[in-house]
Design brief:
By secondary structure, the chain is of the alpha/beta class. It is built from 9 helices and 7 strands; from the N terminus they run E-H-E-H-H-H-E-H-E-H-E-E-H-H-E-H. 48% of the residues lie in helices and 14% in strands. The chain binds adenosine-5'-diphosphate (ADP) and zinc ion. The site of zinc ion has 8 residues, from loops.
């Protein structure tokens, strides 16, 4: 199976698409953001180092991220990288770890990013994602699957959202040229409804099934 990267600003829907591709096509979903949040929750050494960067909307240092990814990828394929690489140094580091056959760029403008992230809520119990505007839970701010009270991520507060978008523009947008130059970049309009973005992603992937 191919290894894929999902690239795009925060709030573009990378996590939503990745979860569905993993469930339906059997990719191994590797979200560096999810892994870091687990490390923070466990209070590990890595979690302690990463927390301040994350809460401020800054990037966790490349060496920490690369070590974390390498450990989880060794010997595997069919990996769907979500939220990684985020810098050119990470992209170059990834080349030593695993080959990448396709990069899906989820394109979304800044205003839509801010609007979506401000309305995002997550279930602290099972990780289910909601959006109070576009996909609200049935019962007022409680998880449909497990009933937990939904929370807002620390970094989905307005000041931090603005910073995350800036960091994306500065550090991650250069990856667009980088992968375009390698001829493996496909652009998707992420402002469309989730089902349409997913269909476009499937089309780009072709018949890469396990
Ligand atoms: P989003 O894509 O919604 O911004 P993520 O859940 O992917 O959020 O990441 C949350 C935070 O975790 C980032 O703002 C950053 O601090 C950290 N992080 C995640 N992935 C990386 C990475 N590849 N490199 C550096 N920091 C990362
Ligand atoms: Zn839940």
């Amino acid at each position: 199976m191919k290894n894929l990267i999902l690239l795009g600003p925060p709030g573009a829907g990378k996590g939503t698409i990745a979860k569905r591709l993993a469930a339906e096509l059997g990719y191994l979903h590797l979200s560096t953001g999810d892994i870091l949040r687990e490390e923070v929750a466990r209070g590990s050494e890595l979690g302690k180092k990463a927390k301040a960067y994350m809460d401020a909307g800054e990037l966790v240092p490349d060496e920490l991220i690369l070590a974390m990814v390498k450990e989880r990828v060794a010997g595997k394929d069919g990996i769907l990288f979500d939220g990684f690489p985020r810098t050119l140094a990470q992209a170059r580091g990834l080349e030593e770890i695993a080959p990448v056959q396709l990069v899906l760029l989820l394109e979304l403008d800044r205003d839509t990013v801010v609007r979506r992230l401000s309305a995002r809520r997550v279930c602290p119990q099972c990780g289910a994602l909601y959006n109070l505007i576009t996909s609200p839970p049935k019962e007022d701010e409680r998880c449909d699957s497990c009933g937990e009270k939904l929370i807002q991520r620390e970094d989905d507060r307005p000041e931090v959202i603005a910073r995350r978008f800036q960091v994306y523009m500065r550090d991650s947008v250069p990856l667009v040229d980088y992968y375009q130059g390698k001829g493996i970049l496909v652009r998707l309009d992420a402002a469309r409804p989730p089902g349409e973005v997913y269909a476009a992603a499937l089309h780009a992937i072709g018949d890469d099934r396990p």
